[in-house]
Amino acid sequence: MLNMRTIAVIGGGAAGLAAAISAAQEICSDQREICIYESGPRVGKSILATGNGRCNFSNASITAQVYYQADFVEDAFSTMPPREVFKWFRRLGLTWIEESEGRLYPSTLRANTVVDVLRLAARDLSVQECTDTEVIAVSPVQGKFLLTLNNDQTRWADA
Question: Strands across the sheet with 154-157, in order?
Answer without folding.
Answer: 135-141, 144-149, 154-157
